[in-house]
């Protein structure tokens, strides 16, 4: 079931692979996070058992008191909470994705985040993104007791095929118009000025230039 969330994410894709969870092999996603400038450390693991039934198993560790302090300090600094997702297939192929949200949004959601797996038409994972639920404007105070464990939802999102332009029909129309012009079947319904403006404009310019070049003759003719 899909909802709309406020998403702050950037995804970097190193490799692509096809999901094999419905062909006899499990797929695991190792989650590692960074609190500020700290190095990435283990956060948990997602095991995808079936892509068709969207069956997943999620294991995550609780935050220590020190990590909760770091997360709250990062939120107060308006910093970014970064998440690294390492996807590993049963034959040891790996894909690395990096995504992030505002730390204050994660804190004010009381650790309720959403990991979205974007899939191509061939069930290739093309992106992993992180978001928070619900939408937060950042500024509320949250007690540390609400920052112990992650309440994570895993969402599968399939890529949709957009409309394809009917180029064949357009090309055929242009071809028919070209053939009609060659046969002389098409009528020119333009006005007289639209048809012959390229002849009229030079004549007008010549008349104007001639009058400007001989102002004395024009004045003398007026005196008589």
From TrEMBL:
What are the annotated GO cellular component locations?
Answer: EMC complex
Q: Which residues cross the membrane?
A: 196-213
Which UniProt keyword terms apply here? Endoplasmic reticulum, Membrane, Signal, Transmembrane, Transmembrane helix
Its signal peptide is: none
- Its membrane topology: Single-pass type I membrane protein
Short name of one Pfam family: ECM10
> Where does this chain mainly localize?
endoplasmic reticulum
* Localization in the cell: Endoplasmic reticulum membrane
The entry's family comment says: Belongs to the EMC10 family.
Q: What is this protein called?
A: ER membrane protein complex subunit 10
């Amino acid at each position: 079931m899909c909802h709309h969330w406020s998403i702050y994410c950037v995804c970097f894709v190193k490799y692509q692979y096809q999901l094999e969870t419905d062909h006899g092999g499990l797929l695991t996603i190792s989650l590692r996070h960074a609190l500020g400038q700290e190095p990435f450390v283990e956060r948990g693991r997602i095991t995808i058992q079936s892509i068709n039934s969207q069956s997943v198993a999620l294991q995550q560790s609780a935050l220590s008191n020190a990590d909760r302090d770091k997360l709250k300090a990062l939120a107060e600094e308006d910093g970014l909470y970064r998440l690294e997702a390492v996807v590993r297939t049963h034959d040891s192929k790996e894909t690395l994705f990096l995504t992030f949200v505002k730390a204050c949004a994660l804190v004010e959601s009381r650790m309720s985040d959403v990991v979205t797996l974007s899939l191509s038409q061939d069930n290739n994972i093309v992106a992993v993104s992180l978001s928070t639920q619900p939408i937060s404007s950042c500024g509320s105070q949250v007690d540390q007791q609400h920052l112990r464990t992650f309440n994570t939802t895993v969402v599968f999102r399939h890529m949709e095929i957009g409309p394809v332009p009917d180029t064949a029909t357009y090309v055929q129309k242009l071809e028919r118009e070209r053939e009609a012009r060659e046969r002389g079947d098409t009528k020119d319904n333009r006005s007289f000025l639209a048809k012959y403006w390229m002849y009229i404009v030079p004549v007008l310019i010549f008349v104007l230039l001639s009058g400007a070049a001989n102002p004395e003759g024009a004045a003398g003719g007026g005196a008589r």
